[in-house]
Amino acid sequence: MTQTTSVRQAVVPPSMERMVSRLHFSPAIRAGGLLFVSGQVGSDVDQSIPDGAPAQIDVALANLGRVLREAGLDFDRVVEINSFHVGDMAAHMPHFVEAIPKHFPEPYPAWTAVQVAGLAHPKLIVEIKAIALA
């Protein structure tokens, strides 16, 4: 689903429409030749949250891919990612570092990883946001 204003275009994969209408946000906004992707968490389409950072990183990256595809893009268009980690961020890093080349081609996007006190749900431990060339 795509909603357009004169300057911004929302990108909403069908699997995220219910969540968007309930939480009042856009999974991504296309503006000025860029796609700004909201933080994607390790929550499956059915709203289940797997245990552990590796599983949540994989689900968050799958969700990021879903939003990119809805915008007609792929991981090769991503120029920046920001990841947010609850708990032992150092323990998350090996899996995240392994996952990056499985999704992103070289040159890899700029990446900032930040440890945070919490995310939108107490079981969430990873969130990934991105900027891509639209």
What's a concise summary of this model?
This protein is of the alpha+beta class and 134 residues long. Helix content is 30%, strand content 31%. The longest helix has 18 residues, at 53-70.
List the helices and strands and how they pair.
Elements: E1 2-4, E2 9-11, H1 17-23, E3 28-31, E4 34-41, H2 53-70, E5 78-86, H3 89-103, E6 110-116, E7 126-133
Parallel strand pairs: 5-6
Antiparallel strand pairs: 1-2, 2-3, 3-4, 4-7, 5-7
Q: How would you explain this protein's 3D organization?
A:
The chain is an alpha+beta fold. The protein has one domain: 60s Ribosomal Protein L30, Chain: A. 30% of the residues lie in helices and 31% in strands. The protein has helices at residues 17-23, 53-70, 89-103, and strands at 2-4, 9-11, 28-31, 34-41, 78-86, 110-116, 126-133. The chain has a seven-stranded mixed β-sheet with strand order 1-2-3-4-7-5-6, covered by helices on one side. Strand 3 (28-31) and strand 4 form a beta hairpin. Helix 2 (53-70) packs parallel to helix 3 (89-103). The longest helix is centred in the middle third of the chain and has 18 residues, at 53-70. It is globular, with a radius of gyration of 14 Å. It starts with a strand and ends with a strand. The model has no long low-confidence stretch (mean pLDDT 93).
Q: Termini distance? A: 16 Å
Biggest sheet, in brief? Answer: 7 strands, mixed
**Relative strand content:** 25-35%
Please give the order of strands in the largest beta sheet.
Answer: 1-2-3-4-7-5-6
CATH superfamily: RutC-like
SSE order = EEHEEHEHEE
Helix content: 25-40%
**Counted beta strands:** 7
Number of domains: 1
The gyration radius over C-alpha positions equals 14 Å
**What is the correct CATH architecture?**
2-Layer Sandwich
Q: Are there runs of 5+ residues with pLDDT below 50, and where? A: none
Number of helices: 3
Principal-axes geometry comes out as globular
Q: Kindly state the mean pLDDT as a whole number?
A: 93
Which class do the helix and strand fractions yield? Answer: alpha+beta
CATH fold call: 60s Ribosomal Protein L30, Chain: A
Q: What is the CATH domain class?
A: Alpha Beta
